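Our preliminary data section would be incomplete without showing what the modeling component actually yields. Below, a chain of 452 amino acids is followed by its predicted structure, encoded as tokens that our downstream tools consume directly.
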Amino acid sequence: MLKVLIILIFTTPFLLPQEITNYIKTADEFTRTALTDQKGYKLLEELCSMGHRLSGSENSLNALMWGEKKMREAGFDSVWLQPVMVPHWERGSVEEGILITADGKRELKIAALGGSVGTPEQGITAEVLEVSSFDELRLLKDKAKGKIIFFSRPLDQGLRNTFSGYGGAVNQRASGAIYAAYYGGVAAIVRSITTKHDNNPHTGAMNYVDTLVKVPGAAIGYQDADCLSEMLEKDPGLKINLRLNCKSYPEALSFNLIGEIKGSEFPDEIILVGGHFDSWDLSCGAHDDGGGCIQSFEVLDLIKRLKIQPKRTIRCVFFINEENGIRGALAYGRYSDSLKINHIAAIESDRGVFTPRGFSVESDSLTLLKLQQWLPVLNRAGIEYVQKGGSGVDISRINGTKAKIGYVPDDQRYMDVQHSANDNFESVHPREMELGSAAMAILVYLISEEGL
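Predicted structure:
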């Protein structure tokens, strides 16, 4: 191990003190410009005013045309739309959950899960079976037939990393309707996966399999989930009437939006930066992932504003359909493979636009070590670490990339807003967002100048 470390140290081209000083000066210019101008924050406000951007919707197409216009106005060297066929699902106007007890009725705050089938017009009325896991449902399978299955396991609040907590609960949302149908249930209701104890339901994608009947799936607000659980203890025979008129339609034409600045010395070496442009339809998706897309746009725009000519080509991609199909990522991956595009790095922002913390890197040890030597420069925008780890869903489909990098902001508030009405423009702080834009711009600039 020591021998390997020595080899790495002496084969990695470390920056000289004067080079570090020069890069720090440029990093400070990126940071000051982003924080002073707040152009990205203003653009996000404009984007959010257009409403949600669910794949297949007219809103999403209008937003894409808006984004194309902004890239052209910013003076990117090339801007184009890549056609992608995407799912088209609409929530509809009816989302009702009525709790029926011996003492009367109570309305529950619910939201259909993305891709759910609707109910009959009169709804589905059935008793409720509460479970905390698929294993518990299997053990209670004799009680499941004809019931609405209530998956009540919350996000684990004891974990420091909220994405880990999310990962420990999300299978209920993704596959709850499948397991409910398998054991004879007539619908699935899932406790919202959130760190915030409010009553706004959090939606998200759900799955079906062709071999089972498709039963409706809905998220329930956290407070109402608590209430339902408590009431089931007192009255196991209570019922819910669930009414949804959501519906899936034939696939629709959409696009990835791509813009770039050509490199002056190595134009065939591409540094990609991007996020997913679609959002769920309960909000404008300010953090997930409108802000990440605008940060990616601002990387190129900051380079233009500072009149920097990068050595390598910087490409911004707004991927479509990450939330319910990753069709945009798949289309871009095929496009990259067919043209044998040389992506030396791909950077994704899809964890909200909170205070910068670090970068998470999928690469070899030597490349990681090279990125880590730039920490004194990256720190000028608040980056505390560069470490091995996952990158992002959309860039995961780009083959042959030297380094895939995820921008990592602070995650403590992200699950408060994700996939819910809480994910609005007002939840974004301009300084937090702009520091993220600056951090990504600094990293892209360093890669452009130094290579990988």
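Residues 1-11 have pLDDT under 50 and may be disordered. The chain has two domains: 12-89+250-450, 92-245. Preliminary results of this kind motivate Aim 1 of the renewal.
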